[in-house]
Write a structure and sequence with these properties.
mainly alpha; elongated; about 270 residues
């Protein structure tokens, strides 16, 4: 096995630089190929030879790379800059990019932890439901956890009728009307009053949009507020809302001369 000759005084070979700076020889070779860090000299035998000045530049490159700068940023934008204001501007831009990345990673972590909790509660492997939970987490739907209680037929219906945008719009309407029902109940509005019937009409329009006019789905929707293992705060909130929604719908149905549940039975 042929031994490498010692580097001339004042120079270091690729292996020595790699060991000194904690990088691989391949990394140094790549930096040379892309023109980011070329050696100060090359021996007659083709060995790359580096000086202390090269080491300082490598230290700069590695430090900036650690901050999240790409090699093209370092090569084309940052290294040539010698005006403090210009450098500070580039650093400010990178800081903003890192903050955005941290926000994305924090949100991803939130979604992973939430999904993990749902998986442990479901105690079954159901990747279709996992996917639905992830989509609803991305929509910031606070009711994502309800998905584990839906049967497959209901979930297939939701998948076909709603995308992210329409699903988010529906949940916004559902939340708004739930809050409105609680408010009307608290302020003493009679469910059978004109205001109560107007609320019921809007609420029924939302249900009709959700079901697509399929009254066979109504019993499934009734069960939404009856999950014994559901979050207690959610159950209490739904109970408060339903105390007004149920009588208001009955009053509106009577006014309209319809009974959707009877239609479902016939």
């Amino acid at each position: 096995m042929r031994r490498q000759k010692a580097a001339p005084p004042g120079y270091m070979g690729t292996g020595a630089v790699a060991r000194k700076m904690g990088v691989t020889v391949r990394t140094l070779q790549h930096y040379d190929r892309v023109g980011l860090l070329s050696p100060s000299a090359v021996s007659e035998g083709g060995r790359r030879l580096y000086t202390d000045k090269d080491i300082i530049k490598l230290h700069q490159i590695l430090s900036l790379k650690q901050l999240g700068f790409s090699l093209s940023d370092i090569q084309n934008r940052l290294i040539p800059l010698d005006d403090p204001g210009a450098v500070a501007g580039v650093l400010a831009g990178q800081a903003g990019a890192l903050r955005a990345q941290i926000a994305r990673m924090t949100e991803s972590l939130r979604q992973i932890e939430a999904l993990r909790g749902e998986v442990m509660q479901m105690q079954t492997v159901d990747f279709k439901k996992y996917a639905d939970i992830i989509v609803n987490l991305q929509m910031n739907n606070d009711f994502y956890w309800l998905i584990k209680y839906f049967d497959e037929e209901t979930l297939d219906h939701i998948r076909l009728r709603f995308d992210k945008n329409s699903g988010a719009a529906f949940m916004e309407t559902f939340t708004r009307l739930t809050d409105e029902a609680i408010r009307l109940q608290a302020t003493g509005v009679a469910p059978g009053s004109e205001q109560g019937r107007a609320f019921a009409e809007e609420y029924w329009k939302m249900i009709d949009e959700f079901t697509g006019g399929n009254v066979a789905m109504l019993p499934r929707l009734v069960k939404l507020g009856q999950f014994e293992s559901a979050d207690s705060a959610w159950r209490e909130r739904q109970a408060q809302a339903n105390a007004f929604i149920g009588p208001a719908l009955e009053a509106w149905f009577a006014k309209q001369g319809i009974n959707p549940f009877l239609e479902e039975d016939t």
